[in-house]
Specification:
The protein is 69% helix and 0% strand. It has one domain: Up-down Bundle (Four Helix Bundle (Hemerythrin (Met), subunit A)), CATH 1.20.120. The termini are close together. It contains six helices and no strands. The structure holds fe (ii) ion (2 copies). The site of one fe (ii) ion (FE2) has 6 residues, from helix 1, helix 2 and helix 4.
Length: 191
């Protein structure tokens, strides 16, 4: 399983925080799609639960990107690269359509499986473009992206809680210490 980025060069902390967070989300969702695939013949309830988790994770991830990461890209990328960001945004919109269909589905049948499958292929393509093209362009702006990453982590924790997804996460200091504060290393990187 690809747990390391192509750019690591050995050091596990060489990535700017924002990129580390986004890549860790990407790996997590890939894992969930694999789980779904493995349950293809399994119980409907299990499949629905995994699909719902995928939809929730993607919704939060996309929102954090759209609220914080993409605006930062629009400010910091050259005009030549802006097309990549707009393309990514359009891909988000289409993915959200599919997510809404999956969330609204009454039956967990072949059509449901097909929707999850197409979503997985769609996301795979999108993630590849983000990681190989967009992240590549900005990876040298470590300081700014470390700072942005703090904001993104805090926003993500907030959204996860709003969607009731938080309890499935690794134990986070947010509960004991009050929220809004960004998570330390303990909250990520363990997947
Ligand atoms: Fe994205
Ligand atoms: Fe992403």
């Amino acid at each position: 399983m690809p747990t390391k980025s192509k750019r690591g060069g050995g050091g596990s902390r060489s990535q700017p925080l924002a990129i580390e967070l986004l890549e860790s989300d990407h790996r997590k969702v890939e894992g969930l799609f694999e789980q779904y695939e493995a349950e293809k013949e399994g119980e409907e309830e299990t499949r629905r639960a995994i699909a719902q988790r995928i939809c929730g994770e993607l919704t939060v991830h996309a929102q954090v990107e759209e609220e914080l990461f993409y605006p930062w890209l629009r400010e910091n990328l050259d005009d030549d690269d802006m097309e990549m960001v707009e393309e990514a945004q359009v891909e988000h919109n289409s993915a959200k359509d599919l997510i809404a269909q999956i969330e609204a589905a009454t039956e967990v049948d072949e059509v449901f499986d097909a929707k999850v499958k197409v979503l997985s292929e769609y996301i795979k393509h999108h993630v590849k473009e983000e990681e190989n093209e967009i992240f590549e362009e900005v990876a040298d702006k470590k300081e700014e992206l470390d700072e942005l990453g703090q904001e993104m982590a805090a926003r993500k924790a907030e959204l996860m809680e709003e969607l009731g997804l938080a309890e499935d996460e690794e134990p986070m200091p947010a509960k004991a210490g009050g929220k809004g504060k960004s998570q330390g290393d303990s909250a990520r990187g363990s997947r």
